[in-house]
Amino acid sequence: MIRLLKDLTDRYVPLDNDNVADAVFFGGDQLTDERVQCAQVATNDSSTSKRRLEGFISKSEDFHRLMNLMEAIFKLTYSTESAEDPCTVHYYRNILRYRNVKGPVKNAFRAYKLLYYTIGDAICVAMFRNELGSMDVEDELTLQDLSRMSVEQKKEWLNGVCEKLVKKWFFEESDDVFQETREVLENPHHEENYWTSTLESGRFHCHHCSKDYKRVSSLKAHESEKHKIPLKHSTKKKRETKDEVHCYIMMLFKLVMLHRNFDSAVDMGDGSRCVRSAKYELPIYHKTHKIKYTISSIHTIAMSSGLLNPDQEERFIGNRFVNLQGGVNSNIALDEYIEMINRDTKASCTGHKTKESILRHSKEYPLLVQLTNQLEAASSMGTRKGFHHLPSYCSDVQKVAKDLLEHDIFRQNENRKPNKKLPDLDKNPFLNCTKDLSVMLHRHRPLSPYGRLRDSTF
Description:
Blueprint: H1 2-12, E1 15-16, E2 19-20, E3 24-28, H2 30-42, E4 56-60, H3 62-77, H4 89-95, H5 109-132, H6 151-170, H7 179-186, E5 199-200, E6 203-205, E7 212-213, H8 216-226, H9 244-268, H10 271-287, H11 291-307, H12 310-318, E8 321-322, E9 332-333, H13 334-348, H14 355-361, H15 364-378, H16 393-406, H17 437-444
Parallel strand pairs: 3-4
Antiparallel strand pairs: 1-2, 5-6, 6-7, 8-9
Helix pairs in contact: 3-9, 3-10, 5-9, 5-16, 9-10, 10-11, 11-12
């Protein structure tokens, strides 16, 4: 990695003699980000910024973030044992016959995304009909006379209904879905911040005697052994009587809307919204124990909140997309473009197995892809056909919405429980996300854009 970064520095980084004039961004998945940081730490004692590899600022790109957010949603909402439980994701997977939804999310990301978006749209349709008093998707909605309204008045009416639904079902009539998380992060003496509350001048002081330590792990060992303080506090709460199916649907609705918000931000090339989405992802990753992407979210938030200089911050937010098709809302993330190039390259170099052969033929691959496309267009071959056909997205949404309304999912029924107990059935997915979160934030909060590895004192 060091050898690669040195070569790329000579090729692409603006230099002033032996120093970096301006750093450029180096994007990829979390593993690539981690390796770049390790290479920078390994060369940190060099005399010049070029030799310290400070010509690159690594970052996590959006396509891999979308995939990992879907994996976190999958962990919270999906179970193959819930096939007989109505209103669950696996139940609708079987009803809609989405047979390609199987195995790890990373191997079938688009199939999982289509299933979750279908259910998310169906929940929105069901909410809209429930609000307007029409409980059958086959009936025509009884609306006020829209023919007398102008276009702007129609938009205002529709946005008013949507705003009411969002306040009622997403925010649950509250001002802050992050209230629990915010209370922990704003109060250094909160019980969740027990191990970090005594940090002073780089030392952790014991709560019960005069000793202090450089590392929080040493403090934990001392208080556990000398003062009999348990390392893990019991977080079990008394089980409340609640409609678990309703809670499940509300949690699923909120998670899908957050994923769709991020996905639509990529389509629109809205870098600010993509970066801001890391704040919503962070508690979900922490809750589902996706540690590396928890760290990645902390780094993304830090770099967009003052760690970079203003020019770098603007590039970090804005340069995240590429538009191959032209037109509006047709952007894709940079790492998705690289994945497409990798796929075409691997398909093209099937017959070339050695390094020398691949390098010798590498210049042919882009030309072969273009030649194939031009040949198909010139010969009027049309689209490739198979025996499979795409299902009707509209009919699938209607089918799920009809099932949700038939189960009266928006009316509370305390006796309604799924047969298979899912990991978490809070209506608010951001509840119970704060255990050890303060330690993670202190340990991985970066002090420099380069070599952003964790603080060893934690």
